[in-house]
Structure formats: C-alpha cells, structure tokens
Amino acid sequence: MQSAVRAQLEAWDGHKGRFVPEQFDSPAAGLRYKVLTLPSDFVVDTPDGEAALSPRVMYAVRGAAPSGRRHKLGLIPSRGEHGTRTANLITKPGDSVWDISDVEGFRKYAARQWPHFPL
C-alpha cells in the first residue's frame, strides 16, 4: 500500500499519521463462492401465478431454511444469447454446501435453502 501521493500528503501534514493507511479485518475475508449455471430465461411459480424471469435483470433469492443459516442466491444478469446465466452462492468455508460432492446432494441442499425456487 505504498503511494507517493499518500507519502507526500503525510509529509505536508507534518507526519501526524492522518495519511497512513490502516488495516482492518474484513467480514468478507475467507468467503467461498459457488457458481451455478442456469437457463437464461425460465418461469417460477408465484402466488399470482407463473412469472418469467428476464435474463437481463438481477435477482436475489432469499434462503428459507427452517434452521441454520439462510443463504441468498444471486442471479447475475446476462444478455441471454448463449442460453445460460449464473447464480452465485457465497458462504463461509464451514458451510455444509462444501461437503456436497454430487448433484443429488446439492438438490437436497437447494430444496432446504430455497424451497420456493426451482433448481
């Protein structure tokens, strides 16, 4: 984090420490990402009937697990020309999702986390 500008400002300020960078622990440090590939456009059931999800819109699917941590699934917008889009799951390293090694295991995890969302 060396910066000639910051060093010059610190010198002009009489080396009082107001331009010295501080380090803080980040709550985001150590997070792990799982990226899922989904169709670019699909429909979901809502209380008002079926609703089409546009590939050009970002969506956040909130977790509804009956116990434990509830995770959000972030659907990233895409132009849809390739027929796919990604959904991101961000968790801490100790989450049970990292113990899953097959599709069926993830389906069970997803059904528990997002019973209202078709995966």
From TrEMBL:
Protein name according to UniProt: Uncharacterized protein
Source organism, top-level taxon: Eukaryota
Taxonomic lineage: Eukaryota, Sar, Alveolata, Dinophyceae, Peridiniales
